[in-house]
Design goal:
CATH superfamily: Flavodoxin domain
Largest sheet: 5 strands, parallel
Number of helices: 6
Radius of gyration: 15 Å
Shape: globular
Structural class: alpha/beta
Number of strands: 7
Helix content: 40-55%
CATH architecture: 3-Layer(aba) Sandwich
Strand order of the largest sheet: 2-1-3-6-7
Order of helices and strands: EHEHEEEHEHEHH
């Protein structure tokens, strides 16, 4: 199974989890770049506002075509109870190319963020095959590895179903 991990990470926490997943799954990875300045306190306020109103954002050029992959794993923090504008844009622009999708998020609420899955699935026009919802503090402390391993096993079991 050919896998692509795409992610948006304002602070680097989602990025670190995605790079760990990449090494375990031996797959391609691509950061989604939000061209809007979201640094500092003002940037944080803009993040919350844009997410609350489910705004999209101008993103940098995409190098890897998600249509060339059997599975696209999409990772995003959760802002104001929803996915980030950069990921919203990426998913909206590429939804017709997705064959299968999985969802990853590192945020303050962890598993409680499963409530964003219906919105993500609607936007992606696909049911999520599996998800990994982690708390930011668990990633920083390194206590998230068991959940990561379970997620990887679930992804690899999907590969067996395809073959």
């Amino acid at each position: 199974m050919k896998i692509l991990i795409t992610y948006y990470s304002r602070t680097g926490v989602n990025e670190s989890v995605c790079k760990s997943l990449q090494s375990k799954l031996d797959c391609d990875i691509e950061p989604i770049i939000d061209t809007k300045n979201r640094k500092g306190l003002w940037g944080l306020l803009i993040c919350g506002f844009d997410a609350t109103f489910k705004k999209m954002s101008k993103i940098g050029a995409i190098e890897k075509d998600p249509g060339n992959y059997d599975l696209v794993i999409v990772s995003t923090p959760i802002w104001a109870g929803t996915i980030t504008p950069a990921i919203r844009t990426y998913v909206f622009e590429n939804k017709d190319k997705f064959k299968k999708v999985a969802f990853v998020s590192v945020s303050g609420s962890g598993e409680e963020n499963k409530k964003v899955l219906p919105d993500f699935e609607s936007l992606a026009n696909k049911k999520v095959i599996t998800s990994l919802l982690l708390r930011r503090w668990a990633v920083r402390k390194g206590t998230h590895q068991e959940k990561v391993e379970s997620f990887v096993k679930e992804i690899l079991s999907q590969d067996k179903e395809i073959k």
